[in-house]
Automatic annotation (TrEMBL):
This enzyme's EC code(s): 2.7.8.26
Protein name (Swiss-Prot/TrEMBL): Adenosylcobinamide-GDP ribazoletransferase
Keywords: Cell membrane, Cobalamin biosynthesis, Magnesium, Membrane, Transferase, Transmembrane, Transmembrane helix
Function: Joins adenosylcobinamide-GDP and alpha-ribazole to generate adenosylcobalamin (Ado-cobalamin). Also synthesizes adenosylcobalamin 5'-phosphate from adenosylcobinamide-GDP and alpha-ribazole 5'-phosphate.
GO terms of biological process kind: cobalamin biosynthetic process
Enzyme class (EC, first level): transferase
HAMAP family xrefs: CobS
Species of origin: Caballeronia telluris
Any GO molecular function: adenosylcobinamide-GDP ribazoletransferase activity
Membrane topology listed for this record: Multi-pass membrane protein
Cofactor: Mg(2+)
Family to which this protein belongs: Belongs to the CobS family.
CC annotations in GO: plasma membrane
Length: 257
């Protein structure tokens, strides 16, 4: 019977690679780095998102003992920004600058590659963060905690789903090693890690959220193809932010109705 230890060690390496890529958490030296690790690590991105959501929930619960809900939510958001290095928020700003300011495909890619932030990107960041803050602050305690976990995990699941269907459009780039086509098996593992959280504690809300996210995924994907012919790493960050915000807004709308 084959020894499963090497396979398990590889999977642990891929998970730690995902953790090191998407957060500021230091990983052990033995993990090493090979370009193909990042593509294999993509299946664990939702699990990393779940951990980020867990940190947000813990900071929120701790701060809530001595501070108003609005301040506690803001501190939890700050914790996730520090933990991830604002990785996805950077993609949001770059994409809004590029799509808002570029006319041709080459213009969009050039602006997206520019590390400077423009007016469109700055406005998008302010609006996005403000909406997240106010939405979570308006939720009852346990619903806010649940949505923090669900949104961070499920939004990453939907973002990496583009690795199944779209092409990476840059010849080179930071996301190039990640951006190989994902297998259906790998995505199934990602979905198991990232989607079940949507269905607790209310499966009806989970079904509604899943349907809305699927429709939003289709629309965003069509836009990427029309403007670029595919996606970039920034596009995945942009999509993750939209999916995360959509989950919060759907949850608040459902609970408030």
């Amino acid at each position: 019977m084959p020894d499963p230890t090497p396979r398990l060690l590889d999977e642990l390496r891929y998970f730690l690679t995902a953790l090191g890529y998407f957060t500021r958490v230091p990983v052990p030296r033995w993990v090493g780095f090979e370009r193909h690790y990042l593509n294999a690590a993509a299946r664990y991105f939702p699990l990393v998102g779940l951990m980020v959501g867990g940190v947000a929930a813990l900071v929120y619960l701790a701060a809530l003992r001595v501070l108003p809900a609005s301040v506690a939510v803001l501190l939890s958001m700050a914790a996730t920004l520090v933990l991830t290095g604002a990785f996805h928020e950077d993609g949001l700003a770059d994409c809004v600058d590029a799509f808002g300011g570029g006319y041709t495909r080459d213009d969009v890619l050039r602006i997206m590659h520019d590390s400077r932030i423009g007016a469109f990107g700055a406005i998008a960041l302010v609006v996005s963060l403000a909406l997240k803050w106010q939405t979570l602050a308006a939720l009852p305690l346990m619903h806010a905690v649940w949505l923090m976990l669900a949104a961070h995990a499920a939004s990453r699941t939907f973002a990496i789903s583009y690795l199944l269907t779209l092409d990476y459009v840059r010849a080179e780039g930071k996301a190039k090693p990640v951006a190989q086509r994902m297998s259906a098996t790998a995505f199934a593992l990602a979905a198991v890690c990232g989607l079940p959280w949507l269905f607790w504690p209310d499966w009806r809300l989970g079904c509604l959220t899943l349907a809305v996210l699927a429709a939003l995924r289709f629309l965003i994907g069509r836009y990427f193809v029309r403007r670029l012919g595919g996606y970039t790493g920034d596009c995945l960050g942009f999509a993750q932010q939209l999916f995360e915000l959509a989950i919060y807004l759907i949850g608040l709308g459902w609970i408030s109705s």
